[in-house]
Amino acid sequence: MARRASRIRLTDHCLAERVCAREEAAGHPEYSPEADAQARLAGGDLRHRILVRARHLPDAPRQRATLRRNAQALLGLSLLLAVLFAMAGVAAARAALIASGPVSIPLALALVTGPSLLALLLWLLLLLGGRGRIAAAVPGMLASLGTRVAARWSAGPHKRAPCLRSPAGPWLLSSTMHLAWLAYLVSAWITLALLLSVRSYGLAWETTLLSDASLHRLAEVLSLGPALFGVAGAESLPLRGPLPDTAREAWAGWLLVAVALYGLLPRALALVITLVMLRHGVVGATRDLHRPGYARLRERLMPAHRSAEMGTAPAMTSNDRGPSNDTPEAVQWDDSPRLVVAVETAPGSPPALPAAWQWLGRVDDLETRDRILAQIRAKGDQGLVMLVRGAAVVDRGTKTLLRELVAATSGPGALMLLGGASAARLRDWRQCAAELQIACGHWPGDGPPSAKGGPTP
Length: 457
Prior knowledge:
The protein has 2 domains: 63-286, no CATH class; 338-442, 3-Layer(aba) Sandwich (Rossmann fold), CATH 3.40.50. Strand 6 (413-418), helix 17 (423-436) and strand 7 (439-442) form a beta-alpha-beta unit. The relative contact order is 0.11. Mean pLDDT is 75; it is low at 1-5, 131-143, 153-161, 305-332 and 445-457. The chain has helices at residues 2-5, 10-26, 33-42, 46-56, 60-97, 105-129, 140-153, 169-198, 212-222, 224-228, 245-284, 292-295, 298-301, 303-311, 366-379, 396-407, 423-436; strands at residues 103-104, 203-204, 338-344, 357-362, 383-389, 413-418, 439-442. The strands form 2 sheets. It has a 5-stranded parallel sheet with strand order 4-3-5-6-7, with helices on one face. The chain has a two-stranded parallel ribbon with strand order 1-2. The longest helix is centred in the middle third of the chain and has 40 residues, at 245-284. It has 457 residues and is an alpha/beta fold.
């Protein structure tokens, strides 16, 4: 019953991606015990719990409303584009049948289906050449316009539509373009059918450069598709000279079938493919659980996994293996007052600290960050100790937060690692500390670091 109540929808994947992007920019997950508890109660793997957590965050209704506004903006843009293409299809069909003499059948077919076939061929070349990444040459203008419209309709700090910047974005834009071309072809086909039904046109296969044999071979090649549906073509109908009424009617029907086969059918297939890939891209984006925005939630949402990790050191892959001295060096301290802040750690009670040290808390959200920064600035030149989990990923958001904390004080700073860390993670944290020009050490066990005399970080 719990699993049925937490059934995942497509919008949940979009919501989880939006939350992930926001938390990666902030450098830490949002602190929401209620959402975490709902995710653990839902059960399942980590991915399922992440999707349930995103649904139960406090601002989930506002995020869903923003997603709906973005979807409405993109839908309105798609409809506007479809109307414009439909008008172009009507104009192309009318131009194909306007002639002082007999209407050239191959010219009419080329005017109606040619632009769509050329655009479809370009899309396929871009798709195959980019190995799955559809270049922005065709839908680039649509992406820019869609982003601007969605930004005006949405609210909050993330105004740019995240769907256009996700892996599913190119497929969304391609689907919009295919839908517009389908509107062009449908309107052109309907216009052709109406004009051929209410007016009398002379139809012929005309040429100036081609010989009769070449013209006949061209007609036979173009007739291969309609022949599959039992429509008579060049093999049984006359091409040159005055055509009787029965032949003109047959060629008019052939023209409508050819437009459907060479124009409508390829576009419809392309639209189906892009819609399938669009759904696959939206759902597949939440499968990358190694992203910092998702990896940080493992300890919160998978308590059994966290307990198992506390008993053993994190496993290292062959890429993580480094030199034998892969344990952070022990940093010695003096007895001067220091401020202690937890940045990349699991929620819990503060560690035991020397009497002269002050625990400021754990940075969970923007509010706590601002509060802690204000406290650090108020203390002036006191030293700052920042606690981080050694196995955590060193991403841009974490570096930005650490840089803000270090810049808030004029005293010495130190980066202390909690728990085990692979050689790769240790190198990342050391490099981060070097960039911030602070010391990097290891917090031994669960207690405070040694207070023996020695170098001061």
